[in-house]
Amino acid sequence: FADICFTSTTIFKMLWNIQIQSKVITYEGCLMQVYFLILFAVSDIFLLTVMAYDHFVATCHPLKYLVIMNPQLCGLLTLESWCISVPGSLLETLMFLRLSFCTNMDILPFFWALPQVLKLACSDTLIDNIVVYSATGSMAMIPFHGILSSYYQIVSSIPSISSAVGKTKPFTTCGSHFSVVSLFYGTGLGVDLTSAGTSPSRTSLVASVKYTIVTH
């Protein structure tokens, strides 16, 4: 559900722009796109963290898996992911209401990335930059640390597995998840860092497509 909504936030508007040969988006539409893009992106990040923890329990504590990963805990972790995503995305979006913009602006990517929006503002954006990058950093890097910790525990447990089949099972189980995490974080950070420092290039646009569409 989170993946479908995250992709729908940008791709339907992009397809509509191609159909009518117009790239115009209203200020209200921009705010809505930014809000839902952050909402589903952050929820994806936390759900990927929950999935990493699930892999950790399945690999390191297989006999206790059904006890630890019970339906109540799964529901609680999913609910917490959404409870963090909603206020986090709302905070970053509301920061734009205090900014002033010119009437007509051009932006190269096919969706409104936060760094690009801040660069287009006519008023001072120091406070907004601090809040946005602090919130984005905490909501992205804290879950990423949890994912790395889970994988570290998984890799550390492999030498203690006696059978050859058992040693390869964690790689087959976690391979797809690790690929999505690498692609999601790699392209996402690339888009944010590139758009914050320089004008978007063709490479950053390709990364934007991978970040918003391919990984989902």
Automatic annotation (TrEMBL):
GO molecular function: G protein-coupled receptor activity; olfactory receptor activity
Domain G-protein coupled receptors family 1 profile residue range list: 1-216
Keywords from the named record: G-protein coupled receptor, Membrane, Receptor, Transducer, Transmembrane, Transmembrane helix
GO cellular component: membrane
Sequence intervals crossing the membrane: 34-53
Gene3D superfamilies membership: Rhodopsin 7-helix transmembrane proteins
Protein's cellular compartments: Membrane
Listed InterPro entries: GPCR_Rhodpsn_7TM, Olfact_rcpt
Primary location group: membrane
Membrane topology annotation: Multi-pass membrane protein
UniProt name for this protein: Olfactory receptor
Organism name: Eumetopias jubatus
Lineage: Eukaryota, Metazoa, Chordata, Craniata, Vertebrata
